[in-house]
Amino acid sequence: MRRTPATALVLALLTLAPAGRAAASPAVQAAVEHGLRGERKIALTFDACTTRAPSPYDPAITAVLEAMHVPATIFVGGGWAREEPAALAELARDPLLEIGNHTETHPHLTRLPDARIREELLAAQRDIAAVTGRAPTLFRPPYGEYDARVLRVAAELGLTTIEYDLPSGDPDPRATTPALIRWVLREARPGSIIVMHINHPRFHTAEALPAIVAGLRARGFELVTVGELLRERERGAVATAATST
Predict the structure, then answer these.
(1) How big is the CA angle at 88 (ends 126 and 118), to the nearest 5 degrees?
(2) Would you list the domain boundaries of the chain?
(3) CA 179/CA 183 separation, integer angstroms
(4) Residue 5 Cα distances to 58, 123, 130, 133, angstroms
(5) What is the pLDDT of residues 123-138, one digit of tens each?
(6) Alpha helices, H only, the chain
(7) How far apart are CA 198 and CA 76, in angstroms?
(8) In 3D, which of 171, 168, 163, 161 has the Cα closest to residue 216?
(9) In this structure, which topology does domain 27-244 adopt according to CATH?
(10) pTM
């Protein structure tokens, strides 16, 4: 591979542990499915999956997030990053948004050997960093599938595995706009991580999103990134430890 300045930057990023994480002997933690149940905060997340068929960026979703000033976390496939570099660059520049890793090719990770799992994560890190200039610290496994091996490999790469407790169901062809709104508003709980998709304009996600945001806020929820939910969990753990000593 010819080492251009951009290539050198990506390789340098990938040799460093993400900020705040130890590079050696990582602790393997459980996947994060939600934030603190005692805090009325919810994270909206959107997957940009690598797919066999074209899966273009849906800018209508970002337009809603911008207009309603909604922080969100976007989990990006490496293949999608290569197909939609301009869209990813736009997302990465937005201060409301954070970018996570959603593997290179969107495989069933639990069916792969460890070496392939590692390459899926590293390839996505490379492709995302090549566009954004920084490697993600969050990772979401495709299909919500993971096991102890997936968690371990992700931890070894400095990645926190993020799941969800509320699938919006937006890929379901029966998921009309009113159905999406009703389901999400009914099932949302304090600390929920909600998953939707940003790479399928045929889904009704963008149409449902304004009412979902407004409805969650009307119920007293603050919308935050996954990163903020994690920081809340850490602060809660510190406070609990302090009161127990």
Answers:
(1) 25
(2) 27-244
(3) 6
(4) 31, 18, 11, 12
(5) 999 999 999 999 999 9
(6) 5-15, 59-67, 78-83, 85-93, 114-132, 148-156, 177-187, 205-218, 226-244
(7) 10
(8) 168
(9) TIM Barrel (3.20.20)
(10) 0.87
